[in-house]
Amino acid sequence: MVNQKLSSKKINKHFLKDFCNQLFCDGLIVYKSLKNNYELLDRENNYLNMYPNKNKFTDEFLKKLMNKHITVIGCGGLGSNLLEQLFRIGVQNYTIVDFDKVEPENLANQAIFTSKDINKSKVDVIKKFGKTVNPAININNISLKVDQTNINQVIAGTDFVFSCADYPSIKNVSLLVSNECLKKGVPHIVGGGYSGHEASLGTMVIPKKTFTWKDYLETSKLGRNKNQEIIPPVVNMSFLPIIKIIAAIQINEFFKLFNNNDNLLLINSFNEFDMNLYQIRKTMIRKESTE
After folding, report:
1. Under CATH, which number does the domain 41-284 receive?
2. Domain extents for the chain?
3. Considering the entire predicted model, what is its pTM?
């Protein structure tokens, strides 16, 4: 059948494109451009270059950016949505960490997973998915609970960390991750959870340049008022559209950081997105950093 089609005089570029795509899906070929995924991002480049950047998003700069090593700790609602977007925009090197398995309720608010993945390791499923998006992706998938005994190993060699875990609590795991990142000089975004219609964008910490998560916790002790704690409580609630918005904003800030954009939204403050009003509410960190 293939020979008949190839010998036909009606062969055109559309047929050749479809034919090559089928070979790719069958694993018989790998597109050269997928090994350098930044070559596929013309539209993304045009968007990013609209920022008042100190550096233009040239192919050379994007190649350097796409080769950054990203660590995502916690692959649930926020973590899985972050990873799906990062895979598709070309970042190629990852460490992903989660001890959990896919459960039926995850399908409503977490990206990547399907009903066929129930009872499978989240990090294993995500790694397999990432390879289907871009075969050049490198993923170190680690199935464990992050604690004091392994956090050094988890973060070793990374360029940026998204802390999305909420076990045993957002407050404690974020402090653990942030303290280790500060030791290693690794920029990171920490925070998560919900409070009413608001979802946490968290805070971005740039070692020796911004306030820290510890500083934020000191600020939060003051509270918004006597009856409300600043850190959103972990409750049994979630809404996929707002999770995707949070993930998109955090990734946008990651790109801005590595392009030396001065207009960083998430530094020196704890930020929450109000889905009801489409507003970002900021709690400024007032304690001076001692790191």
Report:
1. 3.40.50.720
2. 41-284
3. 0.83
